[in-house]
Design goal:
CATH architecture of the largest domain in chain A: Alpha-Beta Complex
Number of helices of chain A: 9
Distance between the termini of chain A: 42 Å
Shape of chain A: globular
Oligomer: homodimer
Radius of gyration of chain A: 20 Å
C-alpha cells in the first residue's frame, strides 16, 4: 500500500439518531451528532430544494434577483470575552453565513431572549456593539423581537440573527461545487475564537491574551469576487472548525480533500492553549476566517486579493481537492505521514458561538 | 363636559428606562416597558428608516420588488398546550407578522435553542408540527440552526423564526396609516390563546377546554386584499392583546380609537377564565386573529370577505378611528360609559407566545 493510500476497513457508521433518546450537548457541536439531527430529523420534515442545498445560506429568487437567507442563534458564555462579545458575534456570524454564498449581505433581524435580571447596562453594551458591527459590515438591522424568560432559564441573553443578501450575477458558490484539482485557501490563523472563549472559561492565563477573531468577512469576499467569479466554495469554519467544515464540503461535493497540516497558520498562544487542554486547533471554532475552494488557475489571483485585504493578510493555500477517497478529509502531518481527519461525534468546545 | 369627553389631567408619563436597572419580565410583555426598551435602547442604537416603521415586519426593496421581513422568538411554556404547540406557534407567528404588512409570506428560517436532555421524540413532534403548519400556510422553511444549552439553562426549546414575503403592487399597509373615519374590524374571538396556555399552567378546568387559536392568517389576508387594496392597517393582537395593539396603532398614526366593548366576541369559557384570574380579555394574547383598519367605504366588502373565510367567520366591526384624543384608545363599556384603555406597564400573562 502506497503512503498516500489509506485503509478504510474497520470504519464505523455514525450512530443513528435513535441511539440517543435525548438531546445532548454534542447535538449542538457541529459534528456528526449535529449532522445526524439535520439528516434524520429536520430534513425529512421540511424537505425542499433550498434546504437540501445545506449551505450556510439558502438561496431563492425574487423578481429575477437571487437572494440568500441565513439564520444563527448565539448562546456563548461568557457574554463578553477577549476580542468581542455576543452582540458583534451575532451580527458578524450571520453576515458571514450570507457572504459565504457569495451574496452581499443587506438586512438583518435580531431576536433577543433575555433572562430576567440582566442589567440593562449589559444589554445596552451588547446592542451598541451590534450596531457598530452592523455599520462596519455595511448591513442594516431592520426588525427585531424581545422575549424575557424567568431568572435561571437563560444565560443572560441569547441572540438570534437572521439576514438576507443578494447574490451578484455570475456568482455560483455552494458546498457541492468543489472539484478535483481545486485548491483550498484559508484566510488566516485558526482557533483564535474558540481558544479565546475557552481560556476565559477555564481561567487560563498566557503571556499574550488570546483574542477572538470575530469579524465580518463580506468585504473580503467582495475583494475576492472582484478578481474572479470562479470561486467554487466559500465557508467560514465556525463550530467544529476547519476539520468539520472541510469534511462537510468533501461529503457535499463527493470529493476527497487533502490538507497539509504544516501550512496551517496557528498563533503560538493558541497552540499552547490547545496543547494544555488537549485540543486540536483543526476542530476549534473561528469567527473571522474563511475557507475558499477555487480552481487552480484562479488560486494565485484569489490569494493575492485576500492577502491585500486586512482580514486575509495571512491567507495561505492549505490543501487540494482530489478524486480519491470521496467524502473524506485526510491530512499530511508535520512528520510527513497521512491521517484521516474524521468529523467528531459531538464537540470539543461547548457553546463558543 | 360631555359624556364622550375625557379628562386627561393627572396622566403620568411612562417611567423612563433608567428607573429599572435590570431586565424584568415586563420588558417582554408587549406593554409600556417593552415599548420603552425599543424606544430608548434599540431604536437609538440601530436607527434606520425600516426599523422606525415599527411594523410587525420591516419593508425593503430588491429589484423593484417590495419585501417584508420579520423575526419572532417563541419561549412558551408548556411546549404543548390545548390547540397547539410551540412549533406551529413559531411558524404561524412569523407568517402572520409578514402577512400583516400585506405581504405574501414565502420563506422562513428556524433557529432552535435546545436544552440538553430534551427527548428527541418531543423535538420530533414539534418539528413535524412545524412542517405541517408551514405546508398549511404555503411557506417553505429553507434554512435553520440548532444550538444546545446546558440542562437548566433553557425551557426544553426556544424557537426563533424569521421570514420574508413579497408585498403585492398597490398594497400599502402600515401602523401609521389609520385615519379618522376609518373602521376597526376584528376577525374573531379574543383571548383564546392566552387563556388556553394560562389555564394549563394554572391547572384550571372548565366544562369546555379552551384551545389556542394559533393559525396562519395569510390566506385570510389574501381574501381581504382580493376585494380591495384599500386596507390601511393590519395587525395581529398577540402579546398585550387587542388593547395594546390598538394603543400602538393610535400612537403610530396619531389618531384616537374608540372601541365598542359590547361588540367584542369573547367565548364563554375564556370570559370565565379571565374573571377567575382577574384578567381583562382585551389584554390577553391571540395567535390567530387580526385587526384591520379600513376606510368606511371599504368596510362592508372587507367584512364580507372575512366572514366568508374559515378564520374570519365571527369578524365584526368593533370600533372607529377618530380625530379626538390622538394616541389614545378609549372604550365604550357595556353600561354605556367611556373609559380610557391605557397600555399596561408590564404584562398580564408571562410568556405565552
Amino acid at each position: 500500500m502506497g503512503s498516500n493510500e489509506l485503509n478504510f476497513e474497520g470504519w464505523v457508521c455514525p450512530m443513528p439518531l435513535r441511539d440517543y433518546p435525548n438531546i445532548i450537548l454534542g447535538h449542538g457541536g457541529g459534528g456528526k451528532l449535529s449532522a445526524e439531527l439535520v439528516e434524520h430529523l429536520f430534513l425529512p420534515a421540511f424537505r425542499n430544494e433550498q434546504l437540501e442545498g445545506l449551505g450556510d445560506a439558502a438561496v431563492f429568487n425574487i423578481n429575477g434577483a437571487r437572494l440568500a437567507m441565513s439564520t444563527d442563534s448565539f448562546v456563548v458564555r461568557p457574554l463578553f470575552f477577549p476580542g468581542g462579545n455576543i452582540g458583534e458575534l451575532a451580527v458578524n456570524g450571520t453576515v458571514n453565513d450570507i457572504a459565504m454564498s457569495g451574496a452581499t449581505p443587506l438586512y438583518l433581524s435580531a431576536g433577543f431572549i433575555i433572562e430576567e435580571g440582566l442589567p440593562l447596562e449589559t444589554l445596552g453594551a451588547i446592542v451598541t456593539s451590534m450596531a457598530a458591527a452592523a455599520q462596519k459590515a455595511g448591513v442594516r438591522l431592520i426588525t427585531g423581537d424581545t422575549k424575557v424568560v424567568d431568572k435561571g432559564h437563560g444565560d443572560g441573553v441569547y441572540i438570534n440573527t437572521s439576514g438576507v443578501g443578494v447574490i451578484p450575477e455570475g456568482v455560483h458558490i455552494g458546498p457541492h461545487r468543489a472539484q478535483p484539482g481545486d485548491v483550498v485557501i484559508l484566510s488566516g490563523t485558526i482557533g483564535d475564537h474558540g481558544m479565546a472563549v475557552m481560556s476565559v472559561r477555564e481561567g487560563l492565563a498566557f503571556e499574550t491574551t488570546i483574542e477572538s477573531d470575530t469579524a465580518a468577512l463580506n468585504h473580503l469576499v467582495a475583494a475576492m469576487l472582484a478578481v474572479t467569479n470562479d470561486i467554487h466554495v466559500l465557508r467560514d469554519p465556525t463550530r467544529g472548525g476547519v476539520a468539520s467544515t472541510l469534511n462537510e464540503i468533501a461529503q457535499s461535493s463527493q470529493v476527497g480533500i487533502v490538507l497539509d497540516e504544516r501550512k496551517l497558520p496557528v498563533k503560538t498562544a493558541v497552540r499552547s492553549a490547545c496543547e494544555l487542554l488537549g485540543m486540536d486547533p483543526l476542530f476549534v471554532a473561528n469567527e473571522g476566517k474563511l475557507l475558499a475552494i477555487v480552481p487552480a488557475a484562479a488560486a494565485e489571483a484569489v490569494l493575492a486579493a485576500m492577502q491585500a485585504h486586512p482580514l486575509g493578510q495571512e491567507a495561505a493555500v492549505i490543501g487540494q481537492v482530489v478524486s480519491q477517497h470521496p467524502g473524506m478529509l485526510v491530512a499530511k502531518t508535520g512528520i510527513g505521514a497521512t491521517r484521516v481527519v474524521a468529523m467528531q461525534i459531538g464537540e470539543q468546545l461547548p457553546r463558543i458561538c
